[in-house]
Specification:
Number of domains: 1
Distance between the termini: 45 Å
Mean pLDDT: 87
Oligomer: single chain
InterPro entries: DUF6098
Pfam family, one: DUF6098
Structural class: alpha+beta
Strand content: 25-35%
Largest sheet: 6 strands, mixed
Low-confidence stretches: 1-5
Shape: globular
Length: about 150
Amino acid sequence: MADGSRLFAAGGEPTVVTDLSGLADLVRDPRPLYLRYSEGPERDACITSRDYESGLDLPGLSATPLTPEPWWTRPLEDWLARQVRKYASLAEEDSGRHGWALRGRVVARGPDHEPLLDRVEPVARLAATVMEEALERYRLRFSAGRGPNDE
């Protein structure tokens, strides 16, 4: 995708979400919400996601779903903590990156089956307090690394 302007819809400035309950409020909107770790919407308007193993440019921005699947019966905040922590290292390794919530049109799936989005609309930036709360909740509520042979 050479023209980054196709990635972004018109819209205002995103707000800052400071806790998981605020993020949950955004997810309750019927339109799917996604999470991306990067330098932010302004920077992402000028780039495309890339599959570094193959060297191929992807047809949209890679993102993580924040809207839970219908089979998810645990609290919404548990889903959000898990999803926020999934790629949190991207922001923790690079001080220029942060998490931000977005909406967009799924145009394909990436090599890790992640949604690739165009017509992106920035919704909110995740404050560091969301990252900390998500880590604490994830550690308390999940058995990280547990597999099928661990029952």
